[in-house]
């Protein structure tokens, strides 16, 4: 393939991935909550974790993890149940914590599974079983047959950069003093909405049928 053809593939993958990142989902909800309640630093650490998760799914997608899921459906089932259980527990913890008295906030923060950090962002991204299927479909549609490894890695790097850039921007904007002050007045409702969203998606992932 020529350099221009490779560039076209990277641009096509990047454009689709940018749209996927902009559409609000669990990652967006996590970064928003952390930026408002924990500050820019916590949100940026989670952003790096999310972007790393994107890179992991990108590499898996390029090397055909969807084919593996069809060959061994129990692997996909394990991912769905494990990821769904993680999200459900995280959602329960948020929801329960939102009803506790303000004096218990410091204790709640120490046990909050979404209180910040690289690991939180990484686990939240990896817990979504839709991610490898979507990424695999994206590569199947955009990649030419027998694409070289360096082209796949270039696309994965572009996806990593887009995720880091977008969620980094979200963290910077929402951690602004005036914006966060407005959100903090609705802190408990933010936690309740986040908790319910995590729980609902966790249940959905655990109860959906395995493809194929």
UniProtKB/TrEMBL annotation:
InterPro entries attached to this UniProt entry: LeuE-type (IPR001123)
GO molecular function: amino acid transmembrane transporter activity
Keywords, sorted A to Z: Cell membrane, Membrane, Transmembrane, Transmembrane helix
Organism: Acetobacter nitrogenifigens DSM 23921 = NBRC 105050
Membrane-spanning ranges: 7-30, 42-65, 77-99, 151-174
Location of the protein in the cell: Cell membrane
GO CC terms, sorted: plasma membrane
Membrane topology value: Multi-pass membrane protein
Source domain of life: Bacteria
Lineage: Bacteria, Pseudomonadati, Pseudomonadota, Alphaproteobacteria, Acetobacterales
Keyword Transmembrane helix among UniProt keywords: yes
Pfam families to which the protein is assigned, alphabetical: LysE
Protein's name according to its UniProt entry: Threonine transporter
């Amino acid at each position: 393939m020529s350099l221009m053809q490779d560039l076209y593939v990277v641009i096509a993958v990047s454009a689709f991935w940018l749209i996927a990142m902009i559409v609000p989902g669990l990652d967006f909800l996590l970064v928003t909550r952390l930026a408002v309640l924990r500050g820019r630093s916590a949100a940026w650490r989670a952003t790096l974790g999310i972007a790393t998760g994107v890179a992991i799914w990108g590499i898996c997608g390029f090397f055909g993890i969807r084919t593996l899921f069809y060959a061994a459906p129990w692997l996909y089932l394990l991912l769905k149940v494990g990821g769904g259980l993680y999200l459900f527990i995280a959602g329960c913890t948020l929801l329960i914590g939102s009803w506790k008295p303000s004096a218990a906030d410091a204790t709640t923060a120490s046990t909050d599974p979404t209180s910040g950090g690289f690991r939180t962002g990484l686990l939240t991204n990896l817990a979504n079983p839709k991610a490898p299927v979507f990424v695999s479909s994206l590569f199947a549609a955009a990649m030419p047959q027998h694409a070289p490894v360096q082209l796949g890695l270039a696309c994965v790097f572009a996806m990593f950069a887009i995720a880091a850039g977008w969620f980094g921007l979200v963290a910077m904007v929402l951690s602004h003093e005036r914006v966060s002050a407005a959100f903090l007045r609705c802190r408990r409702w933010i936690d309740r909405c986040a908790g319910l969203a995590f729980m609902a998606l966790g249940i959905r992932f655990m109860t959906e049928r395995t493809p194929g």
